[in-house]
């Protein structure tokens, strides 16, 4: 059987360099290109890439995906910074390339995917919910894509259950102390040397709290999700948002 031809964009970065090693070690894949900043995107077509794993920066990801989709290359995207506007532009490129697929995964680690699943399940049972994400100091964006997605899922589950949007009871204080408001769910971002990627989802109601915590301790935790995404995206045209769609979570 022929091997899946996979390229990595952002190949010299923290997660990209790990992805290069993981793709190269996968028996069913061939690593056909490793692109860093300034490298020509045409390398992807010359190398015959079928899938591009995109792990760069919110400022770079749109141009890279526009090129990939214009050339029939599927995308597995870990880069953050997704807004409604960006998703609409991506969908318009996908409309013009109907047999091509893109997976955007706010987080490729199984523990983080389960955290989001459990948080969505718990959301309707608690009056209040907040998210705290903690990352290394080199991270470009805040809050993290995972925390934003988690808060959106919590807010949607609350709305589905008929719960009101959370009101902030604070009347006095310093700006920013209550975090960012994501659909009514406060999200707090910590940046600390020594950390990698961590998240706590806090729920509270009368007389009890529930905390769901996940810790990514090494970039290797993202690799099974990236490889799964590459294998599945070639048979999944259109946009898939979230690795959970490629997992059987019961
Ligand atoms: N979904 C997930 O599970 C995960 C997602 N991420 C996300 O992945 C992204 C990268 O994170 P991280 O590896 O820590 O960041 P790094 O800064 O370590 O790596 C990004 C790399 O991409 C390069 N780059 C930037 N623009 C381009 C471009 N146009 N073409 C090719 N290479 C480019 C950078 O080059 P230069 O250094 O010159 O700027 C850098 O080498 C972030 O958005 C992060 O949030 C990270 C971990 C897990
Ligand atoms: O920049 C990182 O490191 C990470 N980025 C992703 C995010 O923003 O959610 C995933 C994970 O948290 C690591």
From TrEMBL:
NADP as UniProt keyword: yes
GO annotation, cellular component aspect: cytosol
Keywords for the protein's UniProt record, in alphabetical order: Amino-acid biosynthesis, Cytoplasm, Diaminopimelate biosynthesis, Lysine biosynthesis, NAD, NADP, Oxidoreductase
Catalytic class of the enzyme: oxidoreductase
Pathway named in the protein's UniProt entry: Amino-acid biosynthesis; L-lysine biosynthesis via DAP pathway; (S)-tetrahydrodipicolinate from L-aspartate: step 4/4
Boundaries of every Dihydrodipicolinate reductase C-terminal domain copy: 111-247
Residues binding (S)-2,3,4,5-tetrahydrodipicolinate: 136, 145-146
Domain Dihydrodipicolinate reductase N-terminal as annotated: residue spans: 5-108
Main location: cytoplasm
Gene3D superfamilies per the UniProt record, alphabetical: Dihydrodipicolinate Reductase, domain 2, NAD(P)-binding Rossmann-like Domain
Parts forming coiled coils: none
One GO MF term attached to the UniProt entry: NADP binding
Keyword Cytoplasm among record annotations: yes
Record-annotated active site: 135 (proton donor/acceptor), 139 (proton donor)
GO BP annotation list: diaminopimelate biosynthetic process; lysine biosynthetic process via diaminopimelate
EC number: 1.17.1.8
UniProt family annotation: Belongs to the DapB family.
Subunit organization: Homotetramer.
Function noted in UniProt: Catalyzes the conversion of 4-hydroxy-tetrahydrodipicolinate (HTPA) to tetrahydrodipicolinate.
NCBIfam families, A to Z: dapB (TIGR00036)
Protein name: 4-hydroxy-tetrahydrodipicolinate reductase
Organism, scientific name: Streptomyces eurocidicus
Gene: dapB
